Amino acid sequence: MTQKTMLIEDSWILSTLMENxxxxxxxxxxxxxxxxxxxxxxxxxxxxxxSAIYGKTDLELFGSEFGKKTFIDDLAVMETGQPKIGLIxxxxxKHGEINWTSTTKLPLRNNDGEIIGLLGITREINELKxxxxxxxxxATHDPLTTLANRYLLFDHIEQAIxxxxxxxCYLALLFIDINKFKQINDLLGHDQGDxxxxxxxxxxxxxxxxxxTVARIGGDEFVVLFETFNRSTLAVKQAxxxxxxxxxxxDPVNHSVTVSIGISLYPKNGHDPETLLKAxxxxxxxxxxxxxxxxxx
Length: 297
Hints:
The structure is a single chain. Helix content is 46%, strand content 25%. It has ten helices and ten strands. A five-stranded antiparallel β-sheet has the order 2-1-5-4-3, with helices on both faces. The chain has a five-stranded mixed β-sheet with strand order 7-8-6-9-10, sandwiched between helices. Helix 8 crosses helix 9.
């Protein structure tokens, strides 16, 4: 096979890839200008003719924020000769839609071994990224109520402890347990029980600050993390308010849903999430055996 025949075949292979691949393929020169792009990439950018993009840069096509980032990555590949494999990128288009991609960038060399540009191959991974985000959400939230779960709660408590030390203030945990919830489920059914749980969750979220955390950590067990309290009496008053709201609003006809609430404070009752939660849990059981719906540890 002659060198001319090899060049013709190489050109044909490249053209076939550029015309038919499902990935976006592009070649850039040392100034990061597009020298050649695949049909898929051109169509995604709104161009019917790929050659209309030749000579443009990512700054022109994607805007300043994304263009500057790819410019840095491109230069790193061309200056070091080291490829970037599986680079995860996020681009927000003019409609505000997020497009997730995985990109591989390879240095292009001439016959003398000099780097004259780069070859990029980009694949859309929106479905994969969506599944990943959904998995991360499920790992940190309760599916029934959409509240934080125990894992996310503990993370927020650790952050709140740091802030409490910085601001020299209290941190309060409210451990909330529905009284006789098993009897409610047995009498009315689990579907009605689930609706009560969802209503209770909404009441809690609507009556705390945006900086606070509401979590469901068990079947009928909820926890509210209050940050930056300066007096323990405020936590008790807030707990009493929540108990009254739950009794009046979860089942507004029969008022069958009541709760017992235990309250623990940082640093008085513990210095870590586990200890604080145990203290609030114990106080909740004491509240169940008293005339008050709320009990301070």
